[in-house]
Design the sequence.
DNA sequence: ATCTTGCTGTACCTCGGGTGCAGTTATGCC
DNA sequence: GGCATAACTGCACCCGAGGTACAGCAAGAT
């Protein structure tokens, strides 16, 4: 019957997740209807419920996907930073520079963060999804905290500093700058905040 | 018939807004039902639609209320800071200290920001509400930017610095720290971020 | 006495999230 | 070739939430 791509079986679930992430970041989970997702990927409602038993299962799958992507992106950028510089401080500063550049080059106008999007609607979700959301933040805290401990051994900061707060500052700034960027429709806010954070880190540790 | 408070007429609208703000910050606008609000304040659905023609009108009223409160709180804290110190830099630093203390003393465990809550669901709202949301961010930018310009005249920073980004950093950090605080159920994150921001501002301008 | 404000009550419509289940078709495996 | 399985479609139906449209009523203000 000349069907170009019937029985595409393998990627329908993935395409649902992609459509869902776009929609959820754009307008929130509650405002994202199953109907619009199935129109997007060209299946029926029954098809959706074949892949996800309910909307909560969709949310869980989105979070899992997001956690993995987030980890990969951070890993990629900061290992490249370290490859370009042996020293833990300067490798980190290069990593932040690369991060800012990557953010500035994002094709989307006003990107968003799934964790933040879920955060203000978290009563909609099961406890395990809220736990995953917390974990996505803790990943950042642990990553940056470990690096600062390493740096502080070599470059002890002049003044006592709350290193945990400094680590959390990275996630706070990114989440907050995404909000500002969306509200003001200004894609430059996020990379500039990252560069400012970099200035702060350098000022703290550099002798 | 011994009605304790029938015909309370005057404050029903206000009580609706209070209930709505609590619910919206807790679980998002879309997940906040009119039914729960009317149960909260003890009126009927018709009563709700007497006060607000639809949910969008409720959102608009919430934003207006929020803008006024936000302005008053910031005004109060930073004018007190300036009363305690003549110098624009040190008055500002005192203000930030007061701000951090006020945030640490908040009774609610995980407060939230209406602007952030609306931000990730903004497709639900009319354009004018999105504009008000942007305005609530610009209030912060203008306030802090003006102060930094003032400070920079007296204490020119050693290195070139993006003062607009430094101003936006305040709102970014607060919005982001609220998200982290909610996700991790840790009320100390927000005040600690504000204190860190204060350290950064001092490091930039102090000779 | 009547007007206005601040509601209540009833009835009804639509959309979105589900549930339940029977049927269909391509593919892979024996 | 036969058969199981994966990946759906189609249909029928339920519920809750956002509205719409009015008619009515009761307490104060004038």
Sequence:
């Amino acid at each position: 019957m000349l069907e170009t791509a019937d029985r595409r079986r393998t990627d329908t679930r993935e395409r649902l997740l992609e459509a869902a992430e776009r929609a959820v970041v754009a307008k929130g989970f509650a405002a994202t209807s199953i109907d619009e997702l199935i129109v997007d990927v060209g299946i029926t409602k029954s098809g959706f419920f074949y892949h996800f038993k309910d909307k909560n299962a969709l949310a869980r799958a989105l979070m899992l996907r997001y956690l993995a992507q987030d980890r990969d992106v951070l890993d990629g950028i900061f290992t490249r930073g370290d490859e370009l510089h042996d020293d833990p401080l300067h490798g980190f500063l290069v990593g932040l520079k690369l991060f800012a550049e990557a953010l500035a080059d994002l094709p989307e106008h006003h990107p968003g963060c799934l964790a933040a999007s879920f955060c203000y609607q978290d009563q909609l979700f099961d406890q395990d999804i809220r736990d995953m959301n917390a974990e996505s933040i803790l990943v950042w805290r642990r990553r940056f905290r470990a690096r600062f401990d390493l740096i502080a051994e070599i470059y002890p900061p002049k003044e006592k500093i709350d290193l945990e707060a400094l680590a959390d500052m990275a996630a706070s700034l990114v989440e907050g700058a995404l909000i500002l960027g969306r509200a003001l429709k200004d894609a430059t806010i996020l990379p500039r905040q990252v560069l400012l954070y970099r200035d702060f880190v350098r000022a703290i540790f550099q002798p």
